[in-house]
Every structure is written in C-alpha cells, then in structure tokens.
Amino acid sequence: MWNPDVYLAFADHRGRPFFDLTTRIDCRQPRRVVDLGCGPGNLTQTLAQRWPDAALEAVDDSPEMVAAARERGIDAVLGDVTTWTPAPDTDVVICNAVLHWVPGHTELVTRWARALAPGSWLAFQVPGNFDAPSHQSMLAVARREPFAEALRDMPFQGGEVVQTASRYAGLLTDAGCTVDAWETTYVHELTGATPVLDWITGSALTAVKSRLSEEAWQQYRHALTPLLADAYPARADGRTFFPFRRIFVVARKD
C-alpha cells in the first residue's frame, strides 16, 4: 500500500527528476497530456499550469494515491499502465518513476511510441540504483529469518527490469522516434535519525511492508537500520549524502 504522506516527505528530492525530464519536452500547445503513475498529484498540478489548455489525463494504480490527487483537484483515475492506450489526441505522455515496477516495459513503451501520432512526445524516467547499498541491504535482510519465507520471491523491482539509456534509445529510435536519453546521479542531502530508511520506506519498501505483519515489518526495519547506517554514515553535522542514479528518456515521434 502506498502512503502519500510518507512519499511526499521527500517531495523536493523526488520532484527534481520530474522537472529535469519534463523540461526536455518541447511541445507548445498539446491537446492531451497524460501522467501515467500520477501519484499524489503534486507534480501533475505543474503540468496543468504549464499547459492550461490541454486535456489532462492522470492515472495511478494506487487507490490511496488517486484519492490524494483528487484532493488536489486532479481528475485522476484508477488504472493499470500495462493496459493503457493513448487516445488519438494524445500529444504528451509522461511516466515518472513507474516503469521499474513493470517487467517487460520495453515492449510497453515501444507500443506506446508506435501508437502515438507524429509530433507527439513520450517521456519517462526510472531509478537505476538497484546495485546500490540501499537495495543490497534490503535484499540481505529479506533473506534472513523470520522474513525469508514471506519475502522469498520478492523481486526488489528494477534490477532485472531497467535497461540502459542506450538500450531505450535504440528501442524507441526503431519505433520511429527521435530520442534524447541520459542518466544522472543525484546526491541527495538527507537529515534525521534514519534518513535513508525513511526515504526507501516511501518507495522501494512499500512492497516489502505489504507482505509482512506489522510486527514483522517493525523487526525488518530494525534489522535494516544498522546496515543502512553503515552504508550511508551521517556526518558530524547530521547530514547524510545519498547517491541516487536515474535514467531518463524523452522521445519525439517522427
């Protein structure tokens, strides 16, 4: 279950990749703008401000996130990105930090690109930090008792799913697009007693929490805390620097 409040605790940090992505979309007057995986709607609002005359379509598969987006005035709907198809008037499709949860998404983005009309834009970004100490620590604790059975087939999504920027560029070029693809490693400055744990609790650990009882979840967090503290030590001034690699793709249909 996604918790909008926990996710938004790092809204500034999580928002920066969205803006780095969307500023590369050079579309002046789109008819329809789609936000796939709109989350709590705080970033979707900026799309409405940028393109006030466009029809805004917002989709998320979390009822909690859809409810939070609607509270912000976004007409979000519950939906699955894997079955979504662009309407004929779709000029911009944005999918921010979603596709790493979707095995086989290379075929999905290729299908979207082929379905879009010439001149339309497809933009997405995915985390590329699955070999980072944060995720390796999550996996190490998941293999311990008493968590191993409940998390036995836990994929810790993304490591086997996310492609390189070059791979995405090639796929979408073959689908008839002009592609701008790149990667960036952000170094987030975090504070608090358990800053990295707090960060991943709002994102990567949501699937772990959903498989554990409340008691087991608290035990898991307790076991994970020292591993993250060792991997990301706090400075004397209380700051913790958390590197986070992301992969970006912006494609214009030729």
Notable traits:
Rossmann fold; 254 residues; alpha/beta; 22% strand; seven-stranded mixed β-sheet
Please give the largest β-sheet.
7 strands, mixed
Inertia-based shape = globular
Largest sheet strand order = 3-2-1-4-5-7-6
Which range best describes the helical content: under 10%, 10-25%, 25-40%, 40-55%, 55-70% or over 70%?
25-40%
CATH class: Alpha Beta
Pick out the low-confidence regions.
1-10
CATH fold name: Rossmann fold
User: Which structural class is indicated by helix and strand composition?
Assistant: alpha/beta
Taken as a percent bin, the fraction of beta residues is 15-25%
Based on DSSP secondary structure assignment, what is the total number of beta strands? 7
Average per-residue pLDDT, rounded, comes to: 92
Give the helices and strands as they follow along the chain: HHEHEHEEHEHHEHHHE
Distance between the termini: 39 Å
How many structural units, i.e. domains?
1
The CATH homologous superfamily is called: Vaccinia Virus protein VP39
Assign the CATH architecture.
3-Layer(aba) Sandwich
Work out the helix count: 10
Radius of gyration, CA atoms, in whole angstroms: 19 Å
Oligomer: single chain
Describe the structure.
- The protein has 254 residues and is an alpha/beta fold.
- It is 37% helix and 22% strand.
- A seven-stranded mixed beta sheet has the order 3-2-1-4-5-7-6, with helices on both faces.
- Strand 1, helix 3 and strand 2 form a beta-alpha-beta unit.
- It is globular and about 50 Å long.
- The N terminus is likely disordered.
